[in-house]
Amino acid sequence: MCGGAARIVRSRITVWMLESLRRQGATDSVLLDSYPTINAADLVNAWAYVAMNKEEIDAAIQDEERIEAEACRAS
Please, are residues 32 and 39 in contact by the beta-carbon 8 Å criterion? Predict the structure, then answer.
């Protein structure tokens, strides 16, 4: 966990962030190139977690999008 959010083992990379990037079109290959500390098995586990915890992941992504929107409005 990272601030209460599920994360990739041995890292601070959150599962919701990877799923958000995947929804934006990032492939596993792109993610592995972008985050060299994770491996294909980590992504398999992340996608399984997403499948079993869709509401949690959706809420985390929505929270982050809200925070980003508020920060943009404040700028």
Answer: yes
